[in-house]
Amino acid sequence: MKRILLLAVPLLFAVGLMLWLQKSSEDQLYLSKASQAEQQAQGTQSPSDLIDLEADASDGARELAANASRDEDTPQAPISLGEGEVWLQGRVAWPEGQGWEESLQVYVLSSNVKRGDLDGVLIEDDDEEKTDDEKDPIGDQMVEAFSGDDLAVLLTQTTVKPDGTFRIPVPAWRRSMHLQLLGRHLYMGTPVRVPAPPWNEEFVLEPQVGVWIHGQLQAPPGTDWDRLTSGVRLYKEISAANALVPGGGPPVASFRTRSTREGTFELRGIPVEEHAKLQVWPKKGAPLLRELEPFAPGATLELQIELEKGRSIAGVVQDPEDNPVVGAQVGSFSQAPLAQARGPYRNTYSDEQGRFELLAVPEVPLVVRARHTSWINSDRYNIDGENSVEDLVITMKQGAHLAGTLTMPDGSPAAGVTVLANLDGLHVVGMEGVGMVEHMGSRSTSKTDGEGHFRLEGLADLPYKLGAKSEWKNQVVRVYLDDQRPSEDEIEVQLQISPSLTGTVVDKDGQPVTSYTLLARQARAATMVTVFTNEQMMHVQDDDGRFQLEDLLVGNWQIQVQGDDFILDPPFDVSLPLEDPSTPIVLTVSPAQSITGRVVDPEGRGVAGAEIQIQGQGLEVAQRLSRSRLTPQDISGPEGEFKLGPLAQNAVSLVASADDWCDSESVATAAP
Question: Whole-prediction pTM value?
Answer without folding.
Answer: 0.74
